[in-house]
Amino acid sequence: RGRGMSRGLALTARDGQIALDGHWSWRDGFRVQGDLRGDALSLDWGSVQARGLDGVLALDWRQGGAPRIRSRGPLTLANLDVGVPVTKVRMTVDTDLDQWRFGEIGARLLGGEVRAPKLVWPSREWQPVVLTGIELNQLAALQNEAVVSLTGDVGGYIPLRLLRDSVAVSDGRLANETPLSLALLPASGTQAM
What we know:
mainly beta
């Protein structure tokens, strides 16, 4: 079983500063310890673009063991484009490169906010994610061909199961936080009805 999050997508640093401070030793086996600091990093991973990444990662790797990487405080990310713009991302991370544990997660998405106390990937457990103030007009704007017009805000929770190669959602609940409206727009899909 391979380690890591990607099986072939290159991670490319576009901008920013990276500094590494640490030490290594051979006594009683190979060991590396250090801190990796990123300031205003811009990274591309396939079609995913991350801009304005700031934070410090602590590395501890001993001979014969898996490396351990954990954040010293929260990592912050100004913008993340995964097909939907996500901004003001904030979280902690702790990983052995086989399992990733994220904590104190918060981000702005579709005019609202996403929060989770923790998420583990991969995991067979259902993990709650809370959504508040999601603006339906921003969601509708993601359509290739506008078929509906939506207004209003929704919020609620979505339980996620984050498997190695898939994401599942089950028994989530969203409710309107403001009055909602839906209108069908003149488009080829609606005219066929």
